[in-house]
UniProtKB/TrEMBL annotation:
Its cofactor is Mg(2+). Transmembrane segments: none annotated. Belongs to the HAM1 NTPase family. The active site is at 84 (proton acceptor). It comes from Sphingomonas jinjuensis. This is dITP/XTP pyrophosphatase. It catalyses: ITP + H2O = IMP + diphosphate + H(+); XTP + H2O = XMP + diphosphate + H(+); dITP + H2O = dIMP + diphosphate + H(+).
Length: 208
């Protein structure tokens, strides 16, 4: 058990590198590292610590984020932050959702995953093209205490994909109110408006 009040001091006292980013996705680690650095926090990635990639057996973004954060905290003995995220397409009943990474297969082929989304949309009569990204962040402490936050950004899917600055499904996602896809825009702009930024704002407000 931990009161809300002692957490900010705890994270502020961390030595540099003593927060684990419990992710094996380089694109995500890059974004989370940039977001943490904005708050003066230096972290180390699960990959750099040789932590294994857990099987994501949860049925929600939050459950999978918790599972990844808790495993990293258990194995490292350090506070660990995990991100479980994905793209939910309205006309596909929310797919790929928590299966966003798995649609890209073992080779992490997101060109193929984006093509699969587009093909399924073409096969769905009268389908609209609205979608949103979700990001669940879970922060697990070695004492078992855990807190989580969920962010979201709404947009429309474009075809063909545009831009190579992002990762995953970025090149086909046009956020509402923008003229560039997540793949085309400056990373700083994505950091300001993304699902991950939304979840981070909540984490920062609650924890830092
Ligand atoms: O900002 C994003 N821009 C584009 N695509 C994104 C984004 N955020 C999540 N996505 C997609 C791709 C990713 O592979 C999957 C998350 O799956 P998810 O299991 O949370 O992550 P992962 O397996 O890639 O790495 P890990 O679990 O080690 O953190 O959703
Ligand atoms: Mg994963």
């Amino acid at each position: 058990m931990s009161g809300e009040g002692d957490v900010p001091q705890a994270i502020r006292k961390l030595a540099p590198g003593k927060l684990v980013i419990a992710s094996h996705n380089q694109g995500k680690v890059r974004e989370i590292d940039a977001l943490l650095r904005d708050h003066g926090i230096e972290a180390v990635s699960a990959g750099a610590l040789d932590l294994p990639e857990p099987e994501e057996t949860g049925t929600t973004f939050v459950a999978n984020a918790e599972l990844k954060a808790m495993q990293a905290a258990d194995l490292s003995g350090l506070p660990s932050l995990a991100d479980d995220s994905g793209m939910c397409v309205d006309a596909l009943g929310g797919d790929p959702g928590i299966f966003s990474a798995r649609w890209a297969g073992a080779s992490k082929d997101f060109a193929a995953a984006m093509q699969l989304v587009e093909t399924k949309l073409q096969e769905t009569p009268g389908a609209g093209r609205t979608a949103h990204f979700v990001c669940a962040l879970a922060l697990a402490w070695p004492d078992g205490h855990i807190e989580w936050f969920e962010g979201r950004v709404d947009g429309t899917l474009v075809w063909p994909p545009r831009g190579d600055k992002g990762f995953g499904y970025d090149a086909m996602f046009l956020p509402d109110g923008e003229t560039e896809t997540f793949g085309e825009m400056d990373p700083a702009r994505k950091h300001a408006i993304s699902h991950r930024a939304d979840a981070f704002r909540q984490l920062v407000a609650a924890v830092l």
